[in-house]
Design brief:
This protein has 423 residues and is of the alpha/beta class. It folds into two domains: 110 residues, no CATH class; 219 residues, no CATH class. It is built from 17 helices and eight strands. Strands 1, 2, 3, 4, 5 and 6 form a six-stranded mixed beta sheet that branches. A two-stranded antiparallel ribbon has the order 7-8. The protein is elongated and about 90 Å long. The model has no long low-confidence stretch (mean pLDDT 95).
Amino acid sequence: MKEDFLHYVWKYKLFDTSNLLTTNNEAITIINSGMHNTDAGPDFFNGKIQIGDTVWAGNIEIHIDSSDWLAHQHQHDKAYENVVLHVVFNDDKVIYDANNNPIPTLELKHLVSDKLIAKNQYLQNSKDWIPCQNQIAGVDDFTVKTWLNRLAVERLERKSEEIQITLQQNKNDWEQTFYQYLFKYFGLKVNALPFEQLAKNTSVKIAEKHNQLISIEALYYGQAGYLEENINDEYYLRLQKEYQFLKAKFSLNPIDKSLWKLLRLRPANFPTIRISQLANLLNQQTRLFAKVLEINTVKELEQLFKTTTSAYWKNHYQFGVEAEKSSTKKVGKTLINTLIINVVVPFLFVYGKQKQDEKLMDKALQFLESIKSESNSIISKWEELNVISSNAMHSQALLELKNNYCSQKKCLNCNIGSKILQQ
């Protein structure tokens, strides 16, 4: 048993509350369980307890064993001087306050049902893909859907915090910050890091100073470390020459080419292809974030991000190596949806939150609801459990649920887990 289980039991009063007695046989009435504290200090603030004829207002501390009070050194911490009740599963030692008076103690060992304890232990010890894999089918749709809606917002809140940190590093430059995230997700998981480093190493303002695609391509291929070889190819040599000029003009330093990964990548996702698509996008559109703020539909966003490579890449996937077949390499619908879900939506949400613009925050959520569900191994596993994702808002919520709740066995913090425990 873990202490957080006792927190849960106390918070929701999941024990026999009739005829409660302290370990000194004084009658207890719980008027208010207090406010759960997840930071340092007592576990519940501002509780209200009647012991005998006296009503006490103060903090409540919870332990497995009462001796944990001493093991955790609370006797030396002034934050615990206002504890009016010590709630324990097992009372193995009398604990005294600073005035050498016994702290009123409630022992739960005989008050919590064995069935509830067994359910919790089953979830915590489960080796299944999710702990409640065999019970989730019994949870009503309303509980699942309302919890997923909440998790979608929780995921956005968490992403917002990450964006805020990057924004501070960029001295509150929204365009540069948006541009960095755009590059990161253009690289998909395999090349997210080098693409992010490429954007950090090459300010968007440099690209905006040029209106010719060849210059923007030279800038990014050079900064990506791709223009340091001896390749006898007219296009390559032209890029190389242009980059040498840009490198000297802006005092540029390329990233290490070895960072780029090709293993198990489809050729259409090679960094060479993605860089050209990005260069073309930035050549067609400037001040991308400002444009995103003005857009009201997913279709408009799809149009904004529709781009392709320069002509050279119709017949190539790598420099100097001609492909067997010619093809136009446009940015696909899947990648565009990825950009909307992971870049556009979080940025609209955090910008709306910062500007106290609820319409922008609502628009971000509406975009998620308007995009079809993501397709990946996690969403497929949820579908096997008959938890169906109908749009990107639900798929984002299910990713959050799996990664930050189920995989970490946070069943006590999950509305689905709570429902199963209390059924």
